[in-house]
Design a protein that fits this description.
Layout (H helix, E strand, L loop, with lengths): L2 H11 L8 E5 L2 E9 L5 H7 L7 E10 L2 E2 L3 E7 L5 E4 L2 E5 L2 E9 L3 E10 L6 E9 L4
Keywords: Signal
InterPro entries: DUF4426
Protein name: DUF4426 domain-containing protein
Length: 139
């Protein structure tokens, strides 16, 4: 198995079921996304992905596929808490072999966060989706 495939397998296996990957479909694009506490990652996996582990640090991971193949994309997102405090997330593109994914980190307290994500690939239409997720700091 290749190094990138092993890395992605390790990343997926290191997350609990509560951080399960989700899927949003848009015409010919599949957008896979997951948001989780960075403390769920093993230190060596976090380091390899350039993720800072912390009890109040979350990670948003986005991957865009067309016909099962990774696609480069422009990814933007906003995260908002229940008090209406909002911040823009900046994403870092990670390429490992044929895989392309976009990672962003954000701080959180014990709270429910609302995410609004915009994805555009290959000059196609802007695709948007929203989701809520509750976060708990590591002890």
């Amino acid at each position: 198995m290749s190094r990138p495939a092993l890395f992605l397998l390790a990343l997926c296996l290191s997350l609990p079921a509560t951080a399960a990957e989700r899927l949003q479909k848009f015409a010919d694009l599949d957008v896979h996304y997951s948001a989780f506490n960075s403390g769920f990652l093993q230190p060596e996996i976090a380091s390899a992905a350039g993720i800072v582990r912390g009890k109040n640090q979350g990670v948003l991971n986005i991957a865009v596929l067309k016909d099962g193949k990774a696609q480069p994309a422009t990814v933007k997102a906003q995260v908002r808490n229940l008090l209406g405090q909002s911040r823009a997330l900046s994403f870092r593109e990670v390429r490992e072999g044929e895989a392309i994914y976009y990672l962003s980190q954000f701080p959180f307290d014990k709270e429910t966060l609302h995410f609004k994500v915009d994805v555009q690939s290959g000059g196609g239409p802007l695709n948007s989706f929203e989701f809520d997720q509750q976060f708990f700091p590591d002890e």
